[in-house]
Amino acid sequence: MSGDVCIVGIGIHPFGRTDGVSGLDQGVFAVRQALADAGVAWQDLQFAYGGSDAAGNPDTMVERLGLTGMQFINVRNGCAAGGSALFSAQMAIKSGEFELGLAVGFDKHPRGAFNALPSEYNLPDWYGDAGYMVTTQFFANKITRYMHLHGISRTTLGRVAEKAFRNAVHAPHAWRREPVALDEILEGAMVSDPYSKYMFCSPAEGGVALILASEKKARELGKPLIRLKAAAMRTRPPKSFEVFAPSVEIGGGTATATQIASAAAFEMAGIGPQDIAIAQLQDTECGAEIMHMAENGFCKDGEQEAWLAEGRTEIGGALPVNTDGGCLACGEPIGASGLRQVYENVVQLRGDGGGRQVPGDPRTAYTHVYGAPGVSAVTILER
């Protein structure tokens, strides 16, 4: 089968808190919006992959959308659930088995931190007793080490959050859409040193749906060709220091899950980091965006200090990062979050970003999602 897999329809239910609307409701809302965007009917879809962590089984949405007998497979892969659903969907089309299908993700998390248990990750009880199952604490320790090794200031952490809230003002699907001054971010209540309350995302609610088609089918539909040039998902290599993989061996590791997923995606797409016009990088907290800038190959460790100070990751900068405010402004409903990044990139490549639109007619876009216990998923889009 020749040609690329294309994204022909996108839909999103706003992120945040929506009382009285279930996670499944939000997923169904997103699917209906994506179907309308693609100009196809539910019964036209041949298959679906769906991800949700805390809001039920995605395949049960057939009760709401139509009992067509379609193949619908549930995906549960932590924070990489959305990316994994998308990877699976594009493989189903690349194989030649299908021409038109769906990747969907949704979630509705309770307030407070994620309640992960050590036994779920093959960890001893002492790891939970020490507080490291609370990811705010783990990531605070991880960024403290990184700041020490590579000369990153706390002001740079604050600049990441400041940018996120400023970008989200122009993103209708974002949760937190008010700008916050840098001083307020830095002086906010401390959660886990060096992170203030503005420097973390929150578990949240939302739904995203993407309609995928073969290139032949996309041309039949008359849609602009947004090509999925790469989709890669990788688990951690030896000695890498990852969330819920809690040790640093003497000598350190040679790579991380993100580095090997990123390298695989660039190889598939036949381009390099210098060719990317927009990037959505996992930013569950400010330090994650900073570390992931380097792990995905966009800069060297330590260069982020200058990048943020010079505005290189702003909407009009050399590499706009997290143009809709990322997880910091949108929150992180696990099943939907990685698909939100792809949704945002399609909006940008179509030129539909409004006040957050990246200038210069961008033609390439990159997403990266990261989760426990050290898994990363990367996509590259081209038009």
From TrEMBL:
It comes from the Bacteria. GO terms for molecular function: acetyl-CoA C-acyltransferase activity. Gene3D superfamilies: 3.40.47.10. InterPro entries: Thiolase, Thiolase-like, Thiolase_C_2. Residues 254-380 form the Thiolase C-terminal domain. This is Thiolase family protein. It comes from Novosphingobium olei.
